[in-house]
C-alpha cells in the first residue's frame, strides 16, 4: 500500500481493494452520523469509523494525523467525517448517498443544528473518479427535493485521519451522549 493510500484509508479498517469500497462523508458531528449509518445499514456495512478529512496537512500534530481538539479550533480545514467500508454486493454507493441526503440538512453551510464551523460542513469525499461522478449525480438528483441550494462539497478524498478511540462508536459506548438534533432520517 502506498503512503498516499495510507493517508486516505483508516488504519482501523481491514481494507481489501479487490472486494471493498470506501466512501468518506461529512454531515456534521460524526457521532450521530456514525450511529445512524450503523443502525440503518447494520451488517450490510463492513465497518464505519470516524475521523477527519480533506484538511490542511500542515496542521497535523503527529504522523497519526490531527486531534479533535485541534480540529474544533476551526482553522484546520478538516471536516468531521465517517469513513464507510462496504462491499458493493451488499449495498450500493447510491443507497449510502440517498441516506446521506436524508440524514442531515445539506443546505446549511458549515453547520448542522447548533454545531457551527467548517469542521461540521457537508461533504462527500470520493475515493476514485467513478465514485466522484456517482456522488455529483446524487447531489444533482437531491437538489430539487430541498428548498435551498445544497452546499455539500463533492471532491476526491485528499487525506483522512482517524479520531481517537474515545470517539469511535461514541453513542454505543455513551447511549445518553450528545447527538446533533439535526440528524434524523427525513421523509423526502
Question: What this model shows, in words?
Answer:
The chain has 188 residues and is α+β, with helices and mostly antiparallel strands. It has a single domain, classed as 2-Layer Sandwich (Peptide Methionine Sulfoxide Reductase, Chain A). It contains 6 helices and 8 strands, in the order H-E-H-E-H-E-H-E-E-E-H-E-E-H. The strands form 2 sheets. Strands 7-6-1-3-2-8 form a 6-stranded mixed beta sheet. Strands 4-5 form a two-stranded antiparallel ribbon. A hairpin with a 2-residue loop joins strand 4 and strand 5. Helix 4 crosses helix 5. The chain is globular, with a radius of gyration of 15 Å. The N and C termini lie far apart (40 Å). The model has no long low-confidence stretch (mean pLDDT 93). GO terms for molecular function: peptide-methionine (S)-S-oxide reductase activity. This is peptide-methionine (S)-S-oxide reductase. One of its GO terms (biological process) is cellular response to oxidative stress. Its EC number is 1.8.4.11. Keywords: Oxidoreductase.
Summarize this, please?
Pfam families: PMSR (PF01625). This is peptide-methionine (S)-S-oxide reductase. With 188 residues, the chain is α+β, with helices and mostly antiparallel strands.
Proportion of residues in helical segments: 25-40%
Main sheet characteristics: 6 strands, mixed
Rg, nearest Å: 15 Å
Total number of domains: 1
Give me the strand/helix succession: HEHEHEHEEEHEEH
Order the strands across the largest sheet as they lie in space.
7-6-1-3-2-8
The CATH class is Alpha Beta
Number of helices: 6
Mean pLDDT: 93
How many angstroms separate the termini?
40 Å
* CATH 2nd-level architecture: 2-Layer Sandwich
Shape summary: globular
Uncertain residue segments: none
Tell me the strand percentage band.
Answer: 15-25%
- Say what the CATH topology is: Peptide Methionine Sulfoxide Reductase, Chain A
**Multimer state:** single chain
- DSSP strand count: 8
Name the CATH superfamily assignment.
Peptide methionine sulphoxide reductase MsrA
Category by helix and strand content: alpha+beta
Amino acid at each position: 500500500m502506498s503512503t498516499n493510500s495510507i493517508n486516505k484509508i483508516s488504519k482501523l479498517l481491514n481494507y481489501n481493494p479487490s472486494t471493498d469500497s470506501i466512501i468518506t462523508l461529512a454531515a456534521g458531528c460524526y457521532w450521530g452520523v456514525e450511529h445512524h449509518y450503523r443502525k440503518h445499514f447494520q451488517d450490510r456495512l463492513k465497518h464505519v469509523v470516524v475521523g477527519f478529512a480533506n484538511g490542511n496537512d500542515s496542521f497535523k500534530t503527529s504522523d497519526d494525523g490531527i486531534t479533535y481538539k485541534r480540529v474544533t479550533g476551526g482553522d484546520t480545514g478538516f471536516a468531521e467525517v465517517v469513513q464507510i467500508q462496504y462491499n458493493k454486493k451488499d449495498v450500493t454507493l447510491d443507497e449510502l448517498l440517498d441516506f446521506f441526503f436524508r440524514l442531515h440538512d445539506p443546505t446549511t453551510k458549515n453547520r448542522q443544528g447548533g454545531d457551527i464551523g467548517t469542521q461540521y460542513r457537508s461533504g462527500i469525499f470520493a475515493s476514485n473518479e467513478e465514485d466522484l461522478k456517482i456522488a455529483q449525480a446524487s447531489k444533482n438528483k437531491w437538489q430539487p427535493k430541498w428548498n435551498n441550494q445544497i452546499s455539500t462539497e463533492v471532491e476526491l478524498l485528499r487525506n483522512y485521519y482517524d479520531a481517537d478511540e474515545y470517539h469511535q462508536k461514541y453513542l454505543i459506548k455513551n447511549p445518553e451522549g450528545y447527538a446533533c438534533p439535526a440528524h434524523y432520517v427525513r421523509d423526502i
